[in-house]
Amino acid sequence: MFHRLIPTIAIVSFWAIRTAGAEDILLADFEAESYGAWKTSGTAFGSGPARGTLPNQMQVDGYLGKGLVNSYLNGDGSIGTLTSPEFKIERKYIAFLIGGGRSDQLALQLMIDGNVVRSSTGPNDKPGGSESLAPDAWDVAEFVGRKATLRIIDQATGGWGHINVDHIVQTDTKPKGLLKNAERTFDVQSRYLLIPIKNGAAKREVSLLANGQRIVRNDIELADEAPDWWAPMDVSSWKGKSVTLRVDKLREDSSALANIQQSDKLRNEDDLYRESMRGQFHFSPKRGWNNDPNGCVYYNGEYHLFFQHNPYGWGWGNMHWGHAVSRDLVHWEELGDVLLPDDMGPMFSGSAVVDHNNTSGFGMGGKAPLVLIYTAAGNPTVQGIAYSVDGRTFTKYSGNPVLKQITGGNRDPKVIWHEPTKQWVMTLYVEWQGKHTIHFFTSPNLKDWTLASITEGDAPGSNFLFECPDFFELPIDGDPTRKKWVLLAANSDYAIGSFDGKKFSADATRLKGHRGRGFYAAQSFSDAPDGRRIFIGWWQTETKGMPFNQSMSLPLELALTQTNDGPRITFSPAKELQSLRDRSYQVESRSLRPGEKNPLDDIQAELLELRMEFEPGEAQQVVLNIRDVMVEYDAAKQELSVAGHHAAAPLRDGRQRLVIYCDRTGVEVFASDGLCYVPMPYNTKPENKRIFLESRGGAAMIHSLEVHQLKSAWR
Ligand code: FRU
Known about the structure:
Blueprint lengths: L2 E13 L9 E4 L10 E4 L26 E2 L9 E4 L3 E2 L4 E8 L5 E7 L2 E6 L13 E6 L7 E8 L8 E9 L4 E12 L4 E6 L6 E7 L2 E8 L8 E6 L7 E10 L4 H4 L1 E3 L24 E12 L2 E9 L9 E7 L6 E2 L12 E8 L15 E7 L5 E7 L6 E2 L13 E9 L4 E10 L2 E9 L6 E7 L13 E7 L2 E10 L5 E6 L4 E8 L7 E6 L8 E7 L8 E2 L1 E2 L3 E8 L2 E8 L7 E7 L2 E3 L15 E8 L5 E6 L2 E6 L4 E4 L2 E4 L7 E8 L2 E6 L4 E6 L9 E6 L3 E11 L5
Parallel strand pairs: 20-38
Antiparallel strand pairs: 1-13, 2-12, 3-5, 4-12, 5-11, 6-11, 7-10, 7-12, 8-9, 8-11, 13-18, 14-17, 14-19, 15-16, 15-18, 20-21, 21-22, 22-23, 24-25, 25-26, 26-27, 28-29, 29-30, 30-31, 32-33, 33-34, 34-35, 36-37, 37-39, 37-40, 40-41, 42-53, 43-53, 44-49, 44-53, 45-46, 45-52, 46-47, 47-48, 49-50, ...
Beta-D-fructofuranose binds next to β20, β24, β28 and β36.
């Protein structure tokens, strides 16, 4: 293997290692409520430091503590200055963290006698980019002893018209140099470049170049020394050719580039899906981070699950669309990322449809195209589409964007075919006029969209109709003559009503969806066979120390059932999950008195499904301890508690029916015939495989009880 390492030796900025020398002097950490003696003008800086990310801003990180200067206040349009009191220069260097836009009009400046003697700006001058603050420093040895002030200016109003600054110190320790645009070129012989990652390290802008062109740019926590894990970058399209990785800034002693290896396999591939904290029947990405499910669709005999994927980080960022397929919703094969960040920005959430009538014209040889509808979250933030006729390779439409920015907070298009009016309908989240709203658009061809109506949710702060809408029709209790439309938000709270092809009219609104924790941005599948409404959510299962993080919920089936309060959603585990049953145990119908021997004493299971139907009878509580996760039913309150988290779970005809799935990453509990769904991330201990059942305060009647030990879904 032949490779080159060409660091450009220009030292552009500095990395302060504060060890030796006189004590550092903190000039500002922006942790207080107000700016103290610093003075503002204009509106960009407000009355005090920001606490992290501001509304509509991409995630800001890389600052220290809780506060920082963030002139995105009131958006990019606001301008102003923030000026420090006078201070004496007493050390050789001034070091700080800086981020935001790159411009002469955005700067942290050092002023002496009214002149700007040093100035630094942020890194971003294009849509996309990163809101990470990075270390920078000035050599000010020549000014030691002089009086100076610091001034932060924001005179820019367009895209990236803001600046972020934090933690300004005077220091005598010579900051370590950073190499600018360090490069390494690879003659591609293998499928992957394995990139060393150190969680929490400074994010570096890493560009992949081929044929002199930038293919993609990612912000990566490169490991300068020993990595925590290795992220595979698929370069198989350039086999036999050369590609270059360019890093914007790199510590001069970093071994990150030199450590990159070519490989056809992942690092530790033999361990893949067997890792100690890997969910065994919940989808999670091989490597990196996932959040929302995207583009859920059934196409050519396969369920397709796309997902918000950071291939190069354990945390959120660099949004790609990952891709996995399954024939049964249980066994998933992860294929590789299909939508990469581009000049319009990172690829945020969206949906997929099968264009059976080829309205888009993307079909080929009589094959109906699969069309993805996504958000490109740059500046502006717009909606785009991509298509495929084989469900494997995807092409972004050359006429993108198909929908321009409405406000910066517009995202997550969910598209459906509306048969009565023979058109496409898009529900799009738009933060608009100080409210969460869903904008309804219609289109004949997925390319041209017309605004049809707007449904308002709540003001930001409350979450109704915030992000990731879903919209579908369901029969009540399976009766096709009694159908209702459901409009649902990222937290799965929903409204029920009717829809005429343009406008949604709610009969009931702000209804509660799931009742657990860590379940978000769920999406239902288009075109699922048998008219089923299959639903899958982002399950926020944290897996510290693993080369992957987060997962998806079980595949759920949604239905509507009539209750005394009106029709309500029920959640059930998809029946396909039963194929995972390995050994099954059954307990005869019996009464269970307090203090009796645990009826589940003989069972040891790590992965399990438990189904129980009971009448509380005299019992005050019926309690299950599943591998240390407490699932308690309070008969008087008709309330379920899962790991201490409470949820209303009414008896139905005097009985309670529980279905519980337990994986390494948590439990999902279904009660009250699916009216109560409680997902609960939980890191179970591998050594504890016991299950206990007891009744407290009196005897309960157990009508049926079965426990199934489950197989792993990973082959
Ligand atoms: C919800 C969300 C979406 C956005 C995506 C970005 O979790 O914030 O609104 O499209 O994640 O990853």
